[in-house]
From TrEMBL:
Family from the record: Belongs to the UPF0126 family.
Domain Glycine transporter: 5-77, 91-164
Segments crossing the lipid bilayer: 5-23, 29-50, 62-82, 88-105, 112-131, 143-163, 172-195
Protein name: Trimeric intracellular cation channel family protein
Annotated source species: Dyella humi
Length: 203
């Protein structure tokens, strides 16, 4: 149930971010819905294909699509009358990243895969939808221009796995992993925290 709720909330939040990007890019209503869906289910779809999980999660359970439509419609209605919050996209994207990274990790964990694959699948679930969204909107993906993006997902999943290994309740491990990802993204966005840059010595 916890995994399912994380998935639904992550789908809703990423759908919101898809609509915000569509609006900023001047797309029409259909474009907004399409971008919302691509953002919300892109990462999970790629995960399911790689893990050979069939039918894919949103084909098996149409409630995911209903959540996308509802979240997209409410977001479109809101931005018709009110300007979106200044950091609305970054907040929605950070929350979606946190929820999807942990839920994706849980899917791989339930499948009995190694910790390394769990981290990779969770990170991909959290980041791939946003990459597809930005590519379709002709934007440089956030993962390439925002520090501590995929790194935040990896750190949160590692914390989740360590707590699970230490015997912590799953709910505690999930919350801790989500909080770590959100805090790292906040530090990156607000405080400019980033990994060391690569530098080439002059030849």
């Amino acid at each position: 149930m916890l995994l399912y709720l994380l998935d639904l909330i992550g789908v809703a939040v990423f759908a919101v971010s898809g609509v915000l990007v569509a609006a900023a890019s001047g797309m029409d209503l259909l474009g907004g819905v399409a971008l919302a869906a691509l953002t919300a289910i892109g990462g999970g779809t790629l995960r399911d294909v790689l893990l050979n999980r069939h039918p894919i999660f949103w084909v098996r359970d149409a409630r995911y699509l209903l959540v996308i439509l509802l979240a997209a419609a409410l977001t479109m209605l809101y931005i018709t009358f009110f300007p979106p919050p200044g950091n609305g996209l970054l907040i929605a994207d950070a929350l979606g990243l946190a929820l999807f990274a942990i839920s994706g990790a849980q899917v791989a964990e339930v499948a009995g895969l190694s910790p390394l694959i769990v981290v990779l699948m969770g990170t991909m679930t959290g980041t791939a939808g946003g990459v597809l969204r930005d590519v379709m909107a002709a934007r440089v993906p956030l993962i390439l221009r925002q520090d501590l993006y995929a790194t935040a997902a990896i750190a949160g999943i590692v914390v989740y796995l360590i707590l699970q290994k230490a015997g912590a309740p799953r709910s505690v491990a999930v919350i801790a992993g989500v909080v770590v990802i959100l805090l790292m993204r906040l530090l990156a966005v607000v405080g400019g925290m980033h990994l060391p840059r690569l530098h080439l010595l002059p030849g």
